[in-house]
Amino acid sequence: MTAADEGITGTSTKKRKEFNRMMNDAYEGKFRMIVTKEVSRFSRNILDTISYTRELRAMGIGVIFATDRINTLEPESEMILSYIAAQSQEESRRTSARVVWGQTRQMEKGVVFGQSLLGYDVKDGIISVNPEGAEVVRLIFYKYAVEQVGTSEIARFLTQEGYRTYRGSSKWKYNTVIKILNNEKYVGDLVQKKTYTPDFLTHEKKSNKGAVPLITISNHHEPIISREVWNLAQERLRRNNKHASGESGHSNRYVFSGKIKCGQCGSSFVGRFKYLKDGTKIRRWSCGTATNEGTAGCNVGKLVRDDDAMQMLKTAIRSLPVDFDAVIRNVTDLALDAILTGQTTARDDPHRLRQELDWVQQKKEAVMDAYFSREISKEDMVAFTAKYEHQLTALRKRLEEAQKRKENKQDSAALRSKIQAEVTAILQGETESEVFYKTLLQSLTVFKDRHLELRLNWLPHVFHFVE
After folding, report:
1. Helix 77-108, helix 350-372: angle, nearest 10
2. Considering the entire predicted model, what is its pTM?
């Protein structure tokens, strides 16, 4: 047989096309013997080596490992083969660990591991601006962060105007826009290790949800958008419902998204911005069927201003026959409990800090292994050791402070007072909370005779308004 699978790891046979073709030929009885140089060329996975040689032996096919002088048809071969295969697997594990260690050090130096994307070209670990794509990126961020246009509407605009995605498609989707808005590279930052490989045998990548530390470098490369525009976009993304469906014609980004209904045709109202003569911008809601291409549209003929709808909602809430003092107390207790409990998942949670300490300590120990293996110079060893020792000192200090905060969290009188003031302001209409209003509002139905009906969740009341 000729050599095959060159350059492909032997830790898994899933992607070894020629190896699998050889096994298929064996099933069809096309040969009686396989000759290979050594065990590591056959497979570096112990289980695969034993499993496949047994399977071949059952078909009367032997495997001769020339360098190791093993013939799998001989009785003692499997014991020797297991020992050598275990050595090959361990060698592969060490090689994988060295590669990961080396890549991590390169990432810490700012080398980019990844592919080009819209607005940036990545070549030989260096990222540079692609002017043509950068213009599209700036347009997306400006429309979303400054003009406050929704992601679905941006996608429609880009499609209609003939802009191309990075892959060359003329059709844009809202989730493509969201992915761009979430990519920190556009503000000049670099975050790597968003995925990792937990098993060197399978090579399957998984999303990194805290299993290994991310490698973050701020102001790493030339930004396409300003930090100010980036912050505006991120703040809006946090406020909005990131998982809102772009197929239904409305999202859950605003208080009244999908909540204003047409009393004539039953459709949801959609929001559009309008600039007044004095330069101010307002959002107005109108029946969605009037905007669908190819339809005559509903003739309910009613535009509802966002601020007018909000005033109706506040009026309805203030008129509720409830004990607001009791509501304030209960909501304050729930919020306080959630905040104190949430400390266990915060960035400075003691458990998480201990994990980071262990991780940095492992990296520090790996430096010595790399030095004694002559993979790095003495100067690099000293520099890396000093760096990790500095990180360990900082982490120990944060851990000590986090433990003190956790011990003193019972002293929460000041926090309770602050929360209670905020809850009171929301219920009295002095402060607006989109989360509170969206949770409470069930629907606002608009009828042709300028009559509107407002309903709240969990309450039988119907509030009537006339404009």
Report:
1. 110
2. 0.42
